[in-house]
Each structure stands twice: as structure tokens, then as C-alpha cells.
Write a structure and sequence with these properties.
473 residues; three-stranded antiparallel β-sheet; elongated
């Protein structure tokens, strides 16, 4: 052994220095280590059979549990329990905070759950980082070769080892998603905001904001638009977005017309529109749905019925929008069941409802960007991937990953922390260190122990727990 030879060389050097005390100490320790190693090897050869999992005591053979004794948590019968590894010990955990995090119990890693594929989370994080860089050029990014893009993703995911990415799988899939996301974000313009968020902003601004307030805020934001054109890095944008967020939040709480899920997006979209004026973009999907809806009403003879129903609630904006939403939902649900319908059609119910209560739409405001595309050649395994294909809807992707990033990830991280706290407390209370086996260096297996005591112990254990093979209890 090279290490032993090195120790002997050190001993010779100490002898040359006449340091006899250290020489004797090292000789003694080296001798003890050698004797222990020989004894352990002899015991293993004479007592163990077939490796370290079967031991012979007298005429009986027993299986040996070599698993390290430790405390962990497992889910059992829909409850979180403490478990001693290698034993049948299970103890239910009674903790209100842990029970409150039940929705993330089955989540294995911070970056993925049943709804979110970890390559999606990787692409989402990298997309956010790219657009935080003021020097980022989407056009230049689009020219990157696939190998270069994969290498960029690998560098980004390298330090994120806790998110459990697999090289050759998640970097490959995330690179494909990232390229599509950057291209779509560049071509969509303000259609990058979810149609439900845009509908919320339009309904509030046109039908619920007070006239004086609308006039004042509109003037301020148009003025800020001039400032940002001259000074793109002006720091006051967040202040205006926060103000719009508060107004929209009050509107949502008072009217009950919308869920608060898209409040942040609605505030950012409204800000982006108002710094340019008070015209609102319309998606091609919603515009096509409006044309199809009007054509259907005319062909079915229901146009007058529709107009009369809205006219009856014209003076009550909440009722008017709710009724228009009912008409839009009924029509789009029917359309969604047709063969060639888009899988995302029902996301445009609110936007179609806004168009229905408007006197007319400006065709020049129709955006031409498409929010959906299919990505092929995916290699990962998850419910969102089918036969190597991934359906990417930009709006749904951002909404899903926003919710995952800001709600699921913090809950999962707290779940892991709380489990660790509970395990550490239980480990201290159980004093597990006192139960871990340790080698007694002064013990010597002599003939009395080997030929008398060990066979007696073997006979006794055989009656209690059985032996390896057919004699196992």
C-alpha cells in the first residue's frame, strides 16, 4: 500500500532526526491498524458467506442488514410519516404546516411536477434572463446554430444542480423551446400578453374607469411614453404599472368579472398600450372568431335576438359584459368541438366578448402574430410531450410558468425545509447516534467465543427470527 510505504518513509526520517517518541507512537498506531485489518479480514472470511449479506453463527446462516440506520420521511396511506431505514418503524407526522403543503408532497424535484416539464422551467428561466439584458438582440439570437444554443443552455443550467436537469435531454428540449419563445415574443408584440389579461385591461379602461381618472392617467402615461422614447432606461415604469395594478385589483374585487390570476399581466399590458394612446390590439384568432360568430348568427337567424339581449342590459356594464361572455363561450365551445379547431380557442372567450360589446373593431389593430406552434424532435418524457411533439402556446406557457415560479416553487422549497426541520428534531429526540453499531477494537474472537458462544447465539436466533433460505420465518 503506497500510503503505508509513505508512513514508513516518515518513520525513517524521524529516526534520522532522533525523534524516538514520535517514532514509537507511529509504530504503535501502525501495528494496531494492521492487527485490526487482519482481524476484520479473518472474521469476514470465517464468519461471512457469499459476501457481506450472510453470516454463519455455529451451524446456522443469517441474513445481515447492512443498510445504514437513518431517519427519513415517506408517504404512507396518504400521510407523511417518519421512517427508520432498514426497519418497520413508521410514525405519522402531525404538523399543520406540512399538511398545508400537501399539494407538493408528490413533487420529486423543484423544477417539475405533473403539469410542468423541467425543460419548460429551464427555458422559462433562461428567457427571463435574456430579456433582462438590455443588450439582448432577438434577431441575432435567432441566427444561432442549434449546437451553440444548446451550449448556452448547458452553461445556464450547470450551476442549477438542485433542479435535476439531464444533459442531452432537458438542454436539448429547452433549446428548442427557447428558440421558439424568442421568435414568438418578437413577432407577437403586445399579443404576447394573455388574451384574458388583455380583455381585463380593456373592459376596465373602457367601461369601468372613471372618466376624469381615465383622462388624467392617460395623459400622464402618454407623457411618460415621450420620456421613455428619449430615455429608454427611465426607472419610473414600475411606479405606473403598480398604480394600474392597484386600480385593476380593486376593479376585479368589486366587479367579480375576472379572476385575479392575470392582474400583473393586465397592468403591464395596459401600461404598454396607454403610453402609445388608447387603442387596443386585437388578436387574429379573436377577429376570426368575431367574423365566424356574426356569420353564424346571420345564417341561423339569431342576429336580432343577440342584439336585443345586449340592448336590454346596455346601461349596466357588468351585466352587459357577462352576457356577451355567455354568448362568446357558447359559440367557442361549439367551435372547439370541430375537427380543425385550435386547442387554445377557449382562451379567447373574454377577448371575443370584448369585441361583441364594442360598436365595431378597427381592422388595422388586428395583430398578425400567432401564439401557438408545434415543436417536434423532443426527447424528454412528460405528459406535455406526446410522440416527441410539444404544443407551445406562448400565452399559456407564460401564465403556467409564472404561476409555477411564484407559487409552486416557493411551496416546494418550504416543504423540503420543513421536512428537514422535522427529521432533525426527531433524530435528536430519538438519539439515533447511540444505536449505530461501532467496532469494539479491544474485542478478540478466541476459541471460547468462536466454538461455544457464537453457536449458542446462533441456535437462539434461529428459534426467534429464523435463518436464511427455507428456514426463514
Amino acid at each position: 500500500d503506497l500510503m503505508i510505504e509513505k508512513v514508513r518513509d516518515i518513520v525513517e526520517q524521524l529516526k534520522a532526526l532522533d525523534d524516538s517518541v514520535k517514532v514509537d507512537d507511529i509504530h504503535s498506531r501502525l501495528k494496531t491498524i494492521r492487527e485490526d485489518a487482519v482481524r476484520q479480514l479473518k472474521d469476514r472470511q470465517e464468519l461471512f458467506e457469499g459476501g457481506e449479506n450472510v453470516i454463519r453463527l455455529g451451524k446456522h446462516r443469517f441474513s445481515v442488514n447492512v443498510q445504514q440506520l437513518d431517519l427519513t420521511t415517506v408517504t404512507r396511506e396518504e400521510r407523511m410519516v417518519l421512517h427508520l431505514t432498514g426497519t418497520n418503524f413508521f410514525e405519522p407526522i402531525e404538523d399543520a404546516e406540512l399538511n398545508g403543503l400537501r399539494d407538493v408532497w408528490q413533487q420529486e424535484v423543484v423544477s417539475e411536477n405533473r403539469d410542468v416539464y423541467r425543460a419548460e422551467y429551464l427555458a422559462y428561466q433562461m428567457l427571463d434572463q435574456l430579456y433582462r439584458d438590455p443588450k439582448f438582440d432577438p434577431a441575432k439570437f435567432a441566427k444561432h446554430e442549434e449546437s451553440q444554443l444548446v451550449a448556452d443552455v448547458q452553461r445556464f443550467m450547470g450551476p442549477r444542480y438542485q433542479e435535476a436537469y439531464s444533459k442531452g435531454v432537458h438542454d436539448h428540449d429547452a433549446a428548442k423551446m427557447l428558440r421558439a419563445l424568442v421568435e414568438m415574443k418578437s413577432t407577437l408584440g403586445l399579443l404576447r400578453f394573455d388574451p384574458r389579461a388583455r380583455a381585463m385591461a380593456v373592459v376596465y379602461w373602457r367601461y369601468f374607469a372613471e372618466r376624469a381618472q381615465r383622462k388624467l392617467i392617460g395623459a400622464k402615461l402618454r407623457g411618460y411614453g415621450e420620456v421613455s422614447a428619449a430615455f429608454p432606461d427611465a426607472p419610473t415604469q414600475r411606479k405606473y404599472v403598480a398604480q394600474l395594478h392597484n386600480l385593476l385589483e380593486q376593479f376585479v374585487n368589486d366587479s367579480g368579472l375576472f379572476e385575479p390570476t392575470f392582474l400583473t399581466q393586465a397592468a403591464e399590458y395596459l401600461f404598454a398600450e396607454l403610453i402609445k394612446g388608447d387603442q387596443f390590439v386585437i388578436s387574429r384568432t379573436a377577429a376570426d372568431a368575431l367574423d365566424a360568430f356574426q356569420l353564424h348568427l346571420k345564417s341561423a337567424g339569431h342576429a336580432e335576438r343577440f342584439a336585443a339581449s345586449l340592448a336590454a342590459v346596455e346601461k349596466d356594464p357588468p351585466s352587459r359584459f357577462s352576457l356577451a361572455r355567455d354568448w362568446a363561450a357558447a359559440f367557442l365551445e361549439k367551435q372547439a368541438n370541430t375537427k380543425d379547431a385550435s386547442a387554445d380557442l377557449l382562451d379567447y372567450v373574454d377577448e371575443l366578448a370584448v369585441s361583441l360589446i364594442s360598436s365595431e373593431i378597427d381592422r388595422q389593430l388586428i395583430g398578425q402574430g400567432r401564439a401557438s406552434r408545434e415543436i417536434t424532435g423532443m426527447v424528454g418524457s412528460h405528459a406535455v410531450i406526446r410522440e416527441g411533439k410539444y404544443h407551445l402556446n406562448f400565452n399559456q406557457f407564460i401564465a403556467k410558468l409564472d404561476q409555477f415560479e411564484h407559487h409552486v416553487v416557493p411551496r416546494y422549497q418550504r416543504f423540503v425545509e420543513r421536512k428537514k426541520e422535522l427529521v432533525e428534531a426527531a433524530r435528536y429526540e430519538m438519539r439515533l447516534d447511540e444505536f449505530r453499531p461501532r467496532v469494539l477494537t479491544s474485542f478478540v474472537r478466541n476459541r471460547l467465543i468462536d466454538e461455544v458462544y457464537l453457536p449458542l447465539i446462533g441456535d437462539n436466533l434461529a428459534k426467534q427470527v429464523g435463518v436464511v433460505g427455507e428456514g426463514k420465518r
